[in-house]
Amino acid sequence: MSRILTALQPSGILHIGNYFGAIEPMVSLQSAGNQNLLFMVDYHAITVEQDPHTLRQNILFAAATYLASGIDPEKTILFQQSRVSEHTELAWILNCLVRMGELERMTQYKDKALGKGQSVSVGLFDYPVLMAADILLYDTNIVPVGEDQKQHVELARDLAERFNKKFGETFVVPKPQIRKEGARLMALDDPHKKMSKSATSEKNYLSLMDDEKTVLKKIKAAVTDSEGTIRLSPSRPGIGNLITILSLITKKTPKEIENAYEGKGYGDFKTDLARELTAFLTPLQSKINALLKDPSGLLKILDNGASRAKAMAEKKMIDVRQKIGVTLSS
Questions:
Q1: What whole-number distance in Å separates Cα of residue 57 and Cα of residue 269?
Q2: Predicted pLDDT of residue 211
Q3: Which contiguous run of DSSP H or E holds residue 110?
Q4: pTM confidence score
Q5: What residues contact 203, with CB distance under 8 A and at least 6 apart?
Q6: Are residue 161 and residue 23 in the same domain, yes or no?
Q7: Among this protein's residues, is 150 annotated catalytic?
Q8: Which CATH number does the domain housing residue 318 bear?
Q9: Whole domain around residue 273: which residue ranges?
């Protein structure tokens, strides 16, 4: 039995890239007899400025979204990162093993820090170490991630091996699992960049809560090219991204979609894509809204998940403290 861990920041707008890249794969893994953990990394979220009231709302919204998508809290431990203090404790210990050069090479940090100079927080620089702690704390075997997060899982692997070599076998060395199709949906307004829930323009992403009118408007405005045919090609990232989205929603292969739209143009394709998206999102939105009407029910689920996660984390940290020498015997 494998232990599988997935986490998302409760910041910005959850979009279809988050759904197909992280949430849907976790739902599928529930039926495979694995031990699953899914949590909101709220301490990662505060590496950039957050409004406290909005952050609280986003945490509950994320929990409701996971449950509405099919996450079963009996099969998946669903919790809030900050409720398990061992995450930050282990992060500090790993900070004493990681090298500055390793963190400076992180492409996510370079992208997010670009142009910010001295105003960049230490947390933004250091968050891959907290992510490593998130993973190693639970002896995680598999971490489903997008291609852009693979580098961080590799750091977790390096730190696990370094700790094990220095202090003896302690951590499982995790493996990244990257979805072949749809692991990294691209921005609608710039298909050379990743779809991002923290994007400044709403034209970048398709929110899980977008209504029919908004979906149609965003799809109609999505950047393609002047060729006009519905065909996958490395040189045509815009239409390729839209074909991938339709493939994920309809479960049809890209080739089947190409064949279905042979001789047709962007107008027909985009209209159909918007219709399929709305048909997919509407029932999901209804479930999310119903769950949000019962915040006490959501909190009860998160409380239970945090208790289960903390029991696992405490056991691991007893071993870690003993190994590094901070536990004193009488």
A1: 36
A2: 96
A3: helix 107-113
A4: 0.90
A5: 188, 189, 218, 221
A6: yes
A7: no
A8: 3.40.50.620
A9: 202-290
Question: Lowest-pLDDT range, 41-50, 52-61, 105-114, 255-264?
Answer: 105-114
DSSP letters for 288-299 = HHHHHT-HHHHH
> Which two structure tokens, joined as six digits, stand for 292?
């949000």
Supply 259's token pair.
Answer: 């064949």
Signed CA dihedral, 311, 313, 314, 319: sign only: positive
| Number of domains observed in the structure of the chain | 2
Catalytic residue among 75, 110, 112, 315: 112
Measured CA to CA, the distance from residue 210 to residue 215 in angstroms comes to 6
In this structure, are 153 and 19 located in the same domain? yes
Contact 159, 98 (CB under 8 A): yes
Q: Which residues contact 297 (CB under 8 A, 6 or more apart)?
A: 291
Asked about 310 being catalytic, the answer comes back as no
112 is annotated as an active-site residue? yes
pLDDT by residue (tens digit) across 6-54? 999 998 779 999 898 889 888 888 877 789 999 999 999 998 889 999 9
